[in-house]
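Morning!

This is the sequence you dropped in the shared folder:
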Amino acid sequence: MKGNAYKWWLLALLFVTFFLELGSRQLYNAALQQIKVDFAHLGITDTQLGVVGTVFSAVFGLCLVASGLAADLFGRKRVIVLGTALFSLAICVSGFAGGIVALVVTYGVFNAMGQCCIAPPSYSLISQYHVETRATAMGIFQSAVYLGVVLGSVFAGMLAESGEGGWRIAFWLFGGVGVAWAIVMAFSLRETPVAAKDGEKATLKDAFLALVKKPTAIMIAVAFGFYTYASLGIRLWSAAFMVREFEGVGLARAAFHSVFWLNLGSFAGLMLTARFMDWVGAKRPRIRLEVSAVGFLLCVLPVFWVSRATGFAECCAALAVLGLAVGVYEAAHYPAMFDCIAPRYRSAATGMTGAYAFFFGSLGPAVLGWMSEHLSMRAGFASLSVFFLFGALVLLPALRWTFKRDYIFEEGAARP
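The structure's back. Tokens below.
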């Protein structure tokens, strides 16, 4: 498969990998309420359940630096395949966990170490093969998040509601499929290195300097941290929020609706925004950064609406509107970042900025768990609107002063 055909085949392969990664990540969130019931004899609290998500996010963030650099140094294909195998095995073993400590080690640590190997090299590969169609291709790739989260939630929620230990089956099945897919990827994905002008591979120092010398990229990364904090909190606790706040809503129903409406809105917002940016970006490349800021602002009121919803249907509507706004932001984030980072450093830069974002964002699940115990889950969700507002404010200086200087022109792209 050559030329234009392979770039779409590559996108399909990476789409399935991302689907499996995000689908397996959602298994714990959807089954969280039943896991608490199964481990009730151990005295499990909401804060401890949140700590599992926090450990996952912290390890995921810290390891992103290594995975991004490893992809640039040793090959993006190798990192993706090994990462898929590792997180799939970890998910499978998590199904045998007998308590929180075991989940922290298998799901929180080893699963995170594998999952962090997927996004940096994948986004780098997509950016290499897609220039004029970059926002659209990244939008399609990002949509795997929504499909994986929805189907993973439904699958895990239905099995969890079947009774004690039902949630374990979802972990075993997703893990097994992931291992099989890693083998498929090993034979289907090409290794396509990025050639440097001086013929040398990137070093950690080079990649770090390529990032810190771009104030626009730094501001995008800081804003991404605020987004990640809010996103992780919403995705971990939304199903439990529905079960606790709305009478008659069971675990399977909550697992489906808590992600379906959010991700349906996100998919619509992302695909429409991606096509719009590719169209407008031909003449106005700064549109990607402008859309990022707008996306943040659009999230402020919907997340507050979710926290104040008085009925189940109203909560679903609020999640759909929030999802639409999230999709606008997610369509623009990586294209805006890559406008400022040279191609040879994009895997490493994705890893470094993601490391900060997930390390900071890892506080979200635990803090919302603490707020649920000491204030209320509604108060926790309402607090997230502040983080979306901060994200928009951080991007304003980049729009006003630094983007034009930091923009990197590529063949086939527009000049600022």
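Headline: The radius of gyration is 20 Å.

More detail when I'm at my desk.
O.
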